[in-house]
């Protein structure tokens, strides 16, 4: 049960930046002392149930004092589980604002929570909150293993080839799940795979699109998947039986290229199309949200919300990243900033993260832009303005290659990102290492690696390539 105490420390560390904002030295001392006390308690023979109860109470008290955590995983743990994301219980955002109050659909998060999160988000970009430069307390919990050792892989756990000869552009593990994985294919289908109990197998195949499937997203409760296709439709699927719940056609009859859920309200999905348009769609009604549309300079290829769901970034095939402010009450999008990464290049992947390491708050954006580099940007204000922090060399000139932040914030010094590459390799980079940033390199694919995904505890990594192969990699156990 030492893992429970590590979770307690993780919760404390996540709130650490809100303690004594003008005295960062105290924050380091505080978390170091908490680490010592928790390690001592881990040796005692407390009942497992008591430890879990302490973790729950500690999380609740910190949430009352400072507000809910800003990472999506924290929202899932504290609020989303109590509100299943099913179509009959999700909130309607009708085009007529007066209809909102009359329909009576329940929010997954209360309006008060939205206001509290907005206050937290302002604090996230408050320059008076200075992150500590070293993470002594976190490393004390990690033992002697290095970041490279932490991301060493023992080999392939399983290979899926049901989409062979058709590229698999996207794959993603289910939220807070170790063994449930989904992917989409240019053959027009999606697969939901289960990795346990062995042997790994395809649980259900989602069939119905009339063209290549370009993107998909899990709802936070994993009961729904939305997908986009070149056939011009957005489809909503039941993940248990593979049934298509609803089909939403693009009003412009254009190819749909990407989609993402609004993290605080899974009733809303943002969709990007080939005619340069971005649109917020209410999946329970199949209608577009009034004021929830905008136009980019090119085909919309990538989307990512920040964790609180108030900033949306969108990338197009002409090298631009736009930031939009999202109105929680109405679903309205307001264009805020534009950054030209490289004129004419495709922004094929955007991934947002509020924290880089446990003691160094640093809102960041990870970008693949077909410039033979993986780009890491710093989010410098509450309008989503981006400033290039650093880049990492990879082979990426034309394919729609994606990258991710590692889901767990490491107890070790350093933080990892993972990316595909056109040289058929998977690369791990330490974003805080100035030289020799490559932490690991996985080889085994027969074509460009298009997407990567970690499960929730980082014990398994999935990667997909242009030949239709999906490889599950197993991390070495230390």
From TrEMBL:
Residues 75-84 have a biased composition (Low complexity). Residues 75-113 are annotated as: Disordered. One of its GO terms (cellular component) is nucleus. WD repeats lie at residues 206-247, 442-478. GO terms for molecular function: promoter-specific chromatin binding. Keywords: Repeat, WD repeat. The keyword Repeat applies. This is WD repeat domain 13. It comes from Seriola lalandi dorsalis. The lineage of its organism: Eukaryota, Metazoa, Chordata, Craniata, Vertebrata.
